[in-house]
């Protein structure tokens, strides 16, 4: 922990750490949801959907890395066990029980919309109190917004294709 680095945070650091750990748990669950969905996906446009899910899986793991670095900088400990992801998560986990591409897309759009809300709230909370976390959160928020768009565009294409056949 950097003590001076921690001391310049203008909000309750333990509260901030709790929020970061919630986001951290979300990222791992999102990573796994995408990663497993990509393995199981079936249906029209499968290849395009799988490529997108794998890209997102990699992005979510990168986000977990970024968030965990900030947790450690602030003297916290990233959630230690997968069991605890469930205790901390905001957005939960949707098992890809139905591997049809449309269902997977809808599940993951829901997850992205939750993530957008989480990072938007974190950005608002840290904008005037912790510029380092704020600057960390903005590009992640941008990624989640792009993820939502990517998935909704795929869903649109899928529906068009099914309708026109
Ligand atoms: Fe993410
Ligand atoms: Fe995402």
| Approximate shape | elongated
User: How many runs of DSSP E, i.e. beta strands?
Assistant: 0
The run of helices and strands is HHHHHH
Q: DSSP helix count?
A: 6
Weakly predicted, low-confidence segments? none
Specify the biggest β-sheet.
Answer: none
Proportion of residues in helical segments: over 70%
Integer-rounded radius of gyration: 17 Å
Query: Kindly, what is the distance between the CA atoms of the first and last residues, rounded to a whole number of angstroms?
Result: 59 Å
Indicate the proportion of strand residues.
Answer: under 5%
Mean pLDDT: 97
**Bound small molecules, which ones?**
fe (ii) ion
Which secondary-structure class do the elements indicate?
mainly alpha
Describe the structure.
This protein is mostly helical and about 160 residues long. The chain has helices spanning about 5, 15-40, 45-75, 80-90, 100-125, 130-165. It contains six helices and no strands. The longest helix is centred in the last third of the chain and has 34 residues, at about 130-165. One fe (ii) ion (FE2) binds near residues 30, 60, 112, 115 and 147.
What's the layout of helices and strands?
Elements: H1 3-7, H2 13-40, H3 46-73, H4 82-88, H5 101-126, H6 131-164
Helix pairs in contact: 2-3, 2-4, 2-5, 3-6, 5-6
Bound molecules: fe (ii) ion (2 copies).
One fe (ii) ion binds at residues 27, 30, 60, 63, 115, 140, 144.
């Amino acid at each position: 922990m950097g003590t001076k680095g921690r001391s310049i945070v203008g909000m309750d650091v333990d509260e901030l750490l709790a929020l970061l750990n919630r986001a951290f748990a979300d990222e791992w669950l999102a990573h796994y949801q995408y990663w497993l969905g990509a393995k199981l996906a079936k249906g029209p446009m499968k290849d395009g959907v799988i490529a997108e899910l794998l890209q997102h899986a990699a992005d979510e793991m990168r986000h977990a890395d970024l968030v965990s670095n900030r947790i450690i900088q602030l003297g916290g400990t990233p959630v230690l066990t997968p069991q605890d992801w469930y205790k901390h998560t905001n957005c939960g986990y949707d098992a890809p029980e139905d591997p049809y591409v449309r269902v997977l897309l809808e599940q993951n759009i829901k997850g992205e919309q939750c993530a957008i809300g989480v990072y938007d709230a974190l950005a608002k909370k840290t904008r005037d109190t912790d510029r380092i976390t704020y600057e960390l959160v903005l590009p992640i928020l941008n990624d989640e917004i792009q993820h939502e768009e990517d998935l909704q565009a795929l869903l649109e294409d899928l529906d068009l294709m099914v309708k026109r056949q």
